[in-house]
Amino acid sequence: MKALVKTELGFGNLVIQDRQEPEVSKGQVKIEVKYTGVCGSDIHTYEGHYKVKVPVTLGHEFSGVIVDVGEDVTEFKVGDRVTSETTFYVCGECEYCRNGDYNLCNYRKGLGTQQDGGFAKYVIARKESVHHLPPEVDYRSGAMTEPLACTLHAVDKTVINQGDLVVVIGPGPIGLFTAQVAKSRGAKVIIAGLSHDQVRLSKAEELGIDYALDIQKQDLQEFVYGLTDGYGADVVFECSGAVPAASLALNLLRKKGQYGQVGIFAKPEIEFNLEKIIQKEIQIIGSRSQKSADWEPSLHLMNSGRVNARSLVTHEFPITEWDQAYQVIKSGEAIKVLLTPVDE
Ligand SMILES: [Zn+2]
Ligand SMILES: [Zn+2]
Fold it and tell me: How far is the CA of 61 from the centre of ligand 1 (A)?
């Protein structure tokens, strides 16, 4: 079968290869892939900023149909519509594993990074990671359960009360999901971006986010203080990974506000005003990836229509046209890009 494989570390080295069709072992299922999303981390891996175990088939956001099940698998049968968590192996013994925090296990191996992922016709997943797609969740939306679960993971670490003002900085797929999840918790939500994010800001409006602001045209801080009697936002989720956004977020927050860092900065250490953390008694929340407990609630949000994933898809390409997918992402014209497998 054809697979999109990162063959060596460094820039590029992502090629279509003929790979042996994988077979199930005990406790595993074989999934025929329908769609696999291109994640920001795939771009980082392509450009050589992220380490993966090479050679490996990339792609960790996928949906598909089960075509084979291994021994001991009774939860799934051939023909089931599914998606899978990225977790392929965890130690199962560390304190994190025992609490279900698989995303924090030191020995975790993920699909599409350490183990062959979804940019191929077939992928193998462990049964504990697989979830049925509910009836209203189509394959395209199902492929986006993973990024949605990452945002639900972040939102769940904060306390949001009905009517709270939540600001999401960065209107990419992660920001657009975070905004929708925050809205599902009863918040009033502002999503903020730059002028070149116009397509994404319009999408936010279409999705029913309360306010979508171009901060190069409008003063976000003034807007937030105007809405809150001069107090400031209750929660800010920084989803852009842009350094100026971090200090902007601190200015937007009210005293006792909550700061959620979801975006990843190009350099790990950035200037951050800790004096403001003290003076405003701000709580800072870090959120890494997602865990099992985030998946069913994410699928439920899509099934009930409270989160619209499908409408974030702007482009689709076969895995053989990776270059084009990369171009539309880098140019900023895309929101979410999905890849599809090829037969030959
Ligand atoms: Zn991802
Ligand atoms: Zn562990």
Answer: 6
